[in-house]
Amino acid sequence: MPQYRILTYNTPSLYKISKRLLNPYLYSAGISLFIIFRYLTRQLLISMTAVAGILLLIFMSGRFIKYLAEAAAGELAPDVLFAVIGYRLPSFLELILPLALFIGILLAYGRMYLESEMTVLKACGMSDGQLIKLTMGSALVVMAIVAVMSLYLSPWGIQQVEKIFDDQAKMTEFELLAPGRFQPLKSGERVTYTEALSSDKREMQNVFIAEKGRAGGSPSVVFARTGTQQVNPQTGERFIVLHDGARYQGHPGSLDFRVLEFEAYGVKISEPTAERRRVKEEAIPTLELAQSDNPKYLALLQWRLSIPLIVPIVALLAIPLSRVNPRQGRFFHLLPAMGIYIAYLGLLIASRNMLEKGTIPFWLGLWWVHILFFCIAMALQFGGRILHSRRMRRRSPVQHA
After folding, report:
1. What is the mean pLDDT of the chain?
2. Contact indicator for 173, 185 with CB cutoff of 8 Å
3. Is the pLDDT of residue 144 over 50?
4. Binning pLDDT at 50, 70 and 90, where does residue 134 land?
5. Tens digits of per-residue pLDDT, 287-336?
6. pLDDT tens digits for range 170-187
7. For residue 284, what is the DSSP state?
8. Domains of the chain, residue spans
9. Are 356 and 295 in contact (CB under 8 A)?
10. What is the pLDDT of residue 395?
11. Angle, alpha carbons 183-189-190 (nearest 5°)
């Protein structure tokens, strides 16, 4: 079968696909396009999943380290860390998936150009327009997922995170205690330590409390074998009642110390402020944004609508940018492509800021950025062909003459 010899240097999967496409008994336009679509989709998903996993790991690890530092400082309970990360996951993915698709197309199609797979597919009859249609099939699926996250899941997740932070702000220092760790009070006036703590956080063992002096007074240190939390039924104030210990008060380095041994000693737990945290704008539901006249809310609404629109446009940009000369190397095209993507995202952010300040009208908003880069994608895809056809038209009269 001489028509198959030119395909033997490519990958076995592409060889099988090309063999099916060139088989006159199996050939039909619908079947061939479906085979190519399945192959391209598999290549895109492999690259996009790998890139998305790496980017998600980077984003989440940075955020997790921040929350872990807050938990170590006593500002956040350790048992809510993974819940906070889980609720923030949609807001991470809505930004990661468009970039992952963009890089995935560049890597997958770039490899296919280097290994001459694209040449084989075009030799089998696939045009640039068909390549765009097949690629947009995967891009539209990603666009739908990003739209659901941007418009619904991300605001809902941030709402849940805000509720957790509100609950944490209402907790006392006693409820945030962790055994074997020095726990500073948020105001910095007290440091508490306990060697062991009961599961219900009601009883402590081997307690240490250090307090700064108030209004020029002497600092004090308290040691006790046990401690319990009690609530005054009349006022609702809460206290740590320490048992079998001693209190030392005085300035370090001086001999003027007061020592007080006790069987029971109460330390008042400072109540958290009753002020509610300001709800973040990102937590406001999309329908509420659409009904508002606030420029910031309208800018946020356009931003949420713009994130899904990024997906098909960056897919159109990535198709011509993925064309690689085998002599240039596999990653030569990534640098200019990433520059275009950064410029795209940067103009969107700048337009959002201008929209919030009222510098640009609402009807213009962020849409002009999408239109601009859509035109750039069309120019990259079809500009060379149009210029080539014009040159051929100019040369044709000369050749006839």
Report:
1. 79
2. yes
3. yes
4. confident
5. 988 888 888 888 999 999 999 999 999 999 999 888 877 676 667 778 88
6. 665 666 677 777 777 655
7. S
8. 2-169+280-396, 184-268
9. yes
10. 65
11. 35
Instruction: Convert the chain into a string of H (helix), E (strand) and C (coil).
Output: CHHHHHHCCCCHHHHHHHHHHHCCCCCCHHHHHHHHHHHHHHHHHHHHHHHHHHHHHHHHHHHHHHHHHHHHCCCCCHHHHHHHHHHHHHHHHHHHHHHHHHHHHHHHHHHHHHCCHHHHHHHCCCCHHHHHHHHHHHHHHHHHHHHHHHHHHHHHHHHHHHHHHHHHHHCCCCCCCCCCCCEECCCCCEEEEEEEECCCCCEEEEEEEEECCCCCCCCEEEEEEEEEEEECCCCCCEEEEEEEEEEEECCCCCCCCEEEEEEEEEEECCCCCCCCCCCCHHHCCHHHHHCCCCHHHHHHHHHHHHHHHHHHHHHHHHHHHCCCCCCCCCCCCHHHHHHHHHHHHHHHHHHHHHHHHCCCCCCCCCHHHHHHHHHHHHHHHHHHHHHHHHHHHHHHHHHHC
Six token digits for residue 166: 């509100």
Q: Please report the pLDDT score of residue 7 as a whole number.
A: 41
Is 388 a residue whose pLDDT tops 80? no
Q: Could you identify the residue written with the tokens 């028509």?
A: 3
Q: What is the DSSP letter of 3?
A: G
Give me the residue label for tokens 């895809």: 381
State which amino acid sits at residue 171. Answer: M
Would you mind telling me the total number of residues written for the chain in this entry? 401
